């Protein structure tokens, strides 16, 4: 049996917030642990054993249970019933399955809402949520906090030392939902008091002199309700603070749950939760007490996506992004819910091309997942998620198409695990490792003030991510506090709010030999979200070697051009007019409009490293791609040219490629490549695994 000594080069260096390497929860000789979600309370008990047998027979190794089961675990206040769960765990164990338990807090039982109506959150019309759905609870309601603590404590006492319980998931897909209830208003005031200390400081930070919003005490502050008047009429600084507060409330709830569990569980049981892959209002980096962060992925939501069959293959960037975003947080990630086939909630829910689930699983594996669990094992025959596929069809015994593909994946995985391969990451691959600086705070700020309807911070960032993947570079999303010295290249996309500490850190990074790429809209604001009382982005002039004189954009139907090395590129969304300190810094210039001849991109050496400022956001990203490729080539690194939708990864000695392009792609393999799975002519959907 091969021994995995290196997961990814830097992972060994990363220790999660709880203090230990989260890789320890996964056997050293295993690449990935497959599992499935199961809800015993949905099925007659006499079927449970048959279901667990089938799960084990299909190759699944863990089962996930108790999510959304609060009403069954505490049928009335203070009356707990764990017997059914004991029996389900015993049967799972009898079939060799490990158990991942979930805290049931995403669905409060009906008795709770009737007895304590303020356990529900309030929407922006100040209407209380009601019973009948999920995630309708207020995370700051005193009663919710008290009662959720009790149920978690009971579960932790009972299963914290259970030999078959492998780990815990908290709640479900933390959303950080907006809550306008009186409890939330009070918690927001308290949060503001802690942050600003004095009302004068809040008035300054929010710029309340504008439109007479000014406050004389914290007691007067209410959440600025973007649903009550035109969204643009709301103070951007107050809205940003509400986003920060809401994310903090969510993270706080998860940390609180984790700390209750930690009082009882043995250290071999992990704690994770399953964030939605697309960054939203919850910030996964804010929790401090989880062992690692996992994610959920439903790549096919019926949108056109790439190529002829994109509507069946799903969004090619979904798993690329999820892994590279979640994995670096604690050095380990996994997909806790992966789409099994057709779902019930998208605008259109077409059949998947055969092979799609198989490809998604390989994408997730190649990009680093250490577990992959399918949502859900059995297709439900009633309830909200009718029409949502499972690993088994509606008869409860026949594997679905996705189920069959999962079986194949699991069998192949066993074969890979049996191979003896070199687990040292190749040097030239490691040297391409690139960090992308990301913060939710920055995203929320952009979302409130995009300045045109075509600007989207997330798409702007994804464009750079895709460029990096097209040249086969490993990518990690990093935060400001991270040690960037491990990364030879750092991309800072449209990082709008900065302070002097960050600018100094960026400068030092470049001076010490880093390849730094900073893009348009960076450093426009301070941390309150105010502009500088100075030139546009004044704090970075010395870093980039240029001044920024202004910015332009065009209406959706118009394009302007920028020229680099004799080639013209179209742009429309954002272009900054740069005035380089030295003429030789200019590498691209606008070639039309009244400012033709002004610089759009500047590049300079600084200390041992380089800084490139890309002040323009081009339509296809081709200009940006040529710039990034040039930086890698200058350092003598091999640069691939993978088409959009084709991804390649190195994972523990294996090279893994997947193809969402809707077309066959002949993978350029080195002479010494030995194909283990698939063919050099990679179909779409398709998977290729080889060793070098
Ligand atoms: C996820 C959610 C699951 C299930 C699934 C259906 O977002 O976490 O509980 O509802 O969607 O696709």
From TrEMBL:
Catalytic-site annotation from UniProt: 173 (proton donor), 337 (nucleophile)
GO process annotations (BP): carbohydrate metabolic process
An example molecular function term from Gene Ontology annotations: beta-galactosidase activity
Protein name (database record): Beta-galactosidase
UniProt signal peptide: 1-22
Pfam family, one: Glyco_hydro_42M
Enzyme class name: hydrolase
